[in-house]
Amino acid sequence: MSGVAPYGYGAGRGFALVVVLFILLIIIGASFTHHHGYYC
Fold first, then answer.
1. What is the DSSP annotation of 1-40?
2. Which of 12, 28, 29, 39 is the most exposed place for a label (fewest CB within 10 A)?
3. Global pTM?
């Protein structure tokens, strides 16, 4: 975790973080719309 970490590692980590956030957003959105549909 030093400042001399390879660029590839940082880029891969950033990409993984974006993917995780995107999947989490989809899961939350699908869950919200699913429950909202039930209430309607």
1. --TT--HHHHHHHHHHHHHHHHHHHHHHHHHHHHHHHHH-
2. 39
3. 0.52
